[in-house]
Design a protein that fits this description.
It is built from 15 helices and 2 strands. With 337 residues, it is mainly alpha-helical. A two-stranded antiparallel ribbon has the order 1-2. A hairpin with a 3-residue loop joins strand 1 and strand 2. The longest helix is centred in the middle third of the chain and has 32 residues. The protein is flat, with a radius of gyration of 35 Å. It starts with a helix and ends in a 16-residue tail after the last helix. The relative contact order is 0.09.
């Protein structure tokens, strides 16, 4: 009996000691007359509890009055001019409220042609700039990291060169080509890039202007992704280089690609100087051309262009933040053990 009750009494004693430690008063050990060295008395515990209470009180969320005030001011700064412009287009003194400016806008001469032209130029510029920048930056990131500053300087040069200087150079080349290459096949090339239905020369000029923004967006995305590790892992599984770029790298750069397209679209839809000096008539030039004769219609089309631009930018931003699926290795690269 003594041998059987010994372990039971030991377990009960240990359980009693653990319960006493949890429920005992601060600074004392239950069952002993002494105190633990370094333990604080009750008064010190209450004193230390006051700063903790103050910290919890200070950590409580305060009313976001200033944040709401700043947002309200920013909203008023952006929305009040638009509201005033809308009132100008719909209110005619002596006639009251009328929507003739918007009803006549859809049937205005050159509206749909100029809008479609600008959208086509924007799409072509986005595709060309990404085709130039994505392979170059990936190659530099993988094979020649020391060339990254050189590529960055080259891509940033359009920010240094004024658009008027760029237009002057393009005009000089376009005039020089037909004069000196009239007996060569390149003569037809110079004529084709200046076609008014779709001026390729504007796509080339806009691509140069968009390179700084495309480079910044893609470079930030490549820095956030471990490109060498992803490439080595995909290549070790037997994936080809097109597969690596299309199914491994581009899904990880979706946000950066959407940001580059976002900035390029805004640039092309709002560009006026180059198109006007070269003699073409995209949407921005058409808005300015009708502003003198039809003031209300020009303001109405400006509001409409803002809405269209915001809608397209919203679509691009949603495409960039959509969840991407993880690319799997090609089926031919999987080997059975």
């Amino acid at each position: 009996m003594a041998a059987m009750t010994g372990p039971t009494e030991t377990a009960e004693t240990a359980e009693t000691a653990e319960t006493a430690e949890i429920t005992g008063t601060a600074g004392t050990v239950p069952g002993t007359a002494g105190t633990v060295p370094g333990a604080a008395p009750d008064g010190a515990a209450e004193t230390s509890a006051k700063p903790a209470a103050r910290a919890r009180k200070a950590a409580r969320p305060r009313p976001r009055i200033w944040r709401g005030a700043v947002l309200a001011l920013a909203g008023a700064y952006f929305l009040l001019p638009l509201l005033a412009s809308f009132v100008f287009t719909v209110h005619v003194p002596g006639q009251g409220v009328t929507f003739e400016a918007y009803s006549e806008l859809l049937g205005a001469d050159g509206f749909s042609q100029s809008l479609l032209l600008s959208l086509g130029l924007a799409a072509a510029t986005i595709v060309l700039s990404l085709l130039l920048a994505v392979p170059a930056l990936i190659a530099v990131r993988i094979g020649s990291p020391k060339l990254r500053p050189v590529v960055e300087v080259v891509c940033m040069l359009p920010l240094v060169v004024p658009p008027i200087a760029l237009v002057t150079g393009i005009t000089t080349v376009l005039r020089w080509g037909p004069d000196h290459l009239s007996r060569t096949p390149l003569y037809q090339t110079f004529i084709a890039v200046q076609d008014e239905r779709f001026p390729v020369v504007l796509v080339l000029a806009y691509t140069v202007l968009a390179l700084p923004f495309v480079h910044r967006s893609l470079d930030a995305g490549l820095r956030a992704v471990d490109v060498p590790t992803l490439v080595e892992a995909a290549r070790s599984c037997g994936a080809s280089w097109p597969y690596v770029v299309w199914r491994v790298l581009l899904p990880n750069l979706r946000t950066s690609l959407a940001g580059a397209a976002f900035l390029t679209l805004a640039l092309v839809l709002g560009e006026f100087t180059i198109a006007s000096l070269l003699g073409f008539r995209p949407f921005a030039v058409w808005i300015v051309s009708i502003s003198g004769a039809q003031a209300r219609m020009s303001v109405a089309v400006s509001i409409l262009s803002l809405l269209i631009t915001w809608l397209l930018l919203l679509v691009l931003s949603r495409a960039g933040t959509a969840p991407s699926t993880t690319a799997s290795a090609p089926a031919t690269s999987r080997k059975e053990p």
